[in-house]
Amino acid sequence: MRNLEVKVKILNKMGIVNLLKKLGAEHVCTMKQTDYYFCLGANKEKLRTINDCEHQLIIYRRAERQGRKDSEYEISELNEKEKNHLLESRKIIKDVEKIRELWKYGHTRIHIDHVKHLGNFLELETVIKDISLEGGENEFRTIIDKLQINLVDSVPASYSDLV
Predict the structure, then answer these.
(1) What are the chain's domains?
(2) Which residues are 88's β-sheet partners?
(3) How far apart are the first and last CA of the chain?
(4) H-helix or E-strand containing 97?
(5) CB 103 within 8 A of CB 110
(6) What is the pLDDT of residue 62?
(7) What are the angstrom distances between the C-alpha of 6 and each of 82, 111, 126, 156?
(8) 41 pLDDT higher than 80
């Protein structure tokens, strides 16, 4: 799958929530996530646990740079036994704990993350599936404008690189 992404540090979480409501975004859920990174750099591999009961192996490729980042990713759902095997057999390079509020607008997942030791961030991920690249780019730009995001202020790195 392909994503168009951007991440920015936020100081006024309620201001962002108000802009999301004004945009017409839907609050989906709030969850606790822990990401265990096995590979870092342009090709990342991590195990994500969600609310201590769901487990995913996520492999993605993304150039870490300022502004919009395009990524390619694969997600595999794991059961408890597979998760435990992965944690026992692989070396964890970094782990990141966060509380994530998931919002949706069209084909875009909007995350308000509170990352342990780092603070609050806003992350957009426009999924290029069932939409053309041009349509995804237009949606991405619309949300950036409505949420008043300045791409110059974007965070060029993954949480794993910031912790």
Answers:
(1) 2-162 (2.40.320.10)
(2) none
(3) 26
(4) strand 94-105
(5) yes
(6) 86
(7) 31, 10, 9, 8
(8) no
